[in-house]
């Protein structure tokens, strides 16, 4: 996948992303560099696409969390191979 369009379903990334809002995700940025702290990423978990922010990196594992700390499921660390790509555009 070079580009993908996704619709936000939950509240965990508020106030940045609201339910129903759409985003564009691309894996192209990670052809040139590794994901880093602060990146907004999409990843696969139980056949669902999840949008979270990278909080910390360690080797090839990434600790992610939603911006809305009161409504964000804790995922712990995810391996790089679960990352679909970086959010590169947010439709307003």
The gist of it:
The chain is mainly beta and 92 residues long. The protein has one helix at residues 29-32, and strands at 3-7, 22-26, 40-45, 48-58, 61-65, 77-79, 83-90. The chain has a single domain (3-90), classed as Umud Fragment, subunit A, CATH 2.10.109.10.
What form results from the Cα inertia axes? Answer: globular
Q: How many helices does DSSP assign?
A: 1
Distance between the termini: 23 Å
Give the C-level CATH assignment.
Mainly Beta
Approximately how much beta-strand content do the residues carry? over 45%
What structural class should be given to the helix and strand makeup?
mainly beta
- Sheet with the most strands? 7 strands, antiparallel
Radius of gyration: 12 Å
* H-E string: EEHEEEEE
Which architecture per CATH?
Ribbon
Helix content: under 10%
Q: Give a count of the beta strands, DSSP E runs of length 2 or more.
A: 7
Features:
seven-stranded antiparallel beta sheet; Umud Fragment, subunit A; mainly beta; about 90 residues; 1 helix
What does this protein look like?
The chain has one domain (3-90): Ribbon (Umud Fragment, subunit A), CATH 2.10.109.10. With 92 residues, it is mainly β. Strands 1-2-7-3-4-5-6 form a seven-stranded antiparallel sheet, with no helix packed on it. It is globular and about 30 Å long. Helix content is 4%, strand content 47%. The mean pLDDT is 92.
